[in-house]
Amino acid sequence: MQIGLLFYVCIFWTSSSIFGAVYVFPFEKFTLVKERKADMYRLSAFYVCSTLCDMIAHVTYPTIFMSILYFMVGFQKTAQCFFLTLLVVLLIAITSQGAGEMLGAAVMSVRRAGNVASLILMLFLLTGGYYVQ
């Protein structure tokens, strides 16, 4: 049961982070182009600030979630196991955020970005190893 729960947690934070980040660039494209033409800031400054602002939520929410869930379902109650599990979940959330931003920047269309993210997520689900006997 705990393995299935861990698989669900990984899929939940992967999909939440990908779909939260995939729409960042398509929605902000027009504002970004307008402000870049006015030479207000560099593209790297926009990307770093956007990523750091999104990172706060992508670190805080999984930490709170795992702090409650970990002890509620009866995993090993050692600090080492808890922080290792939290580290893995945070790495999944942060990597998924980066993948979502990459997909959104590559596609630059809201409809196509959602479709590509769904396909990538389905590929992750099928090759994740949960269905291997």
SS strand fraction: under 5%
- Sheet with the most strands? none
Order of helices and strands: HHHHH
What percentage of residues falls in helices of 4 or more residues? Answer: over 70%
Number of helices: 5
Instruction: Calculate Rg over CA atoms.
Output: 17 Å
Overall spatial form: flat
**What's the count of strands?**
0
Kindly report how far apart the N and C termini lie.
Answer: 15 Å
Average pLDDT works out at 87
Structural class from helices and strands? mainly alpha
Q: List the uncertain runs.
A: none
Description of the molecule:
GO terms for molecular function: ABC-type transporter activity. It comes from Ambrosia artemisiifolia. It is a multi-pass membrane protein. With 133 residues, this protein is mainly α. It has helices at residues 2-21, 24-37, 43-72, 79-107, 110-127. α1 (2-21) runs parallel beside α4 (79-107), α1 (2-21) runs antiparallel to α5 (110-127) and α4 packs across α5. The longest helix has 30 residues, at 43-72. The model has no long low-confidence stretch (mean pLDDT 87).
Element layout with pairings:
Layout: H1 2-21, H2 24-37, H3 43-72, H4 79-107, H5 110-127
Helix pairs in contact: 1-4, 1-5, 3-4, 4-5
Short description:
By secondary structure, the protein is mostly helical. The protein has helices at 2-21, 24-37, 43-72, 79-107, 110-127.
Give descriptors for this structure.
single chain, about 130 residues, mainly alpha, about 85% helix
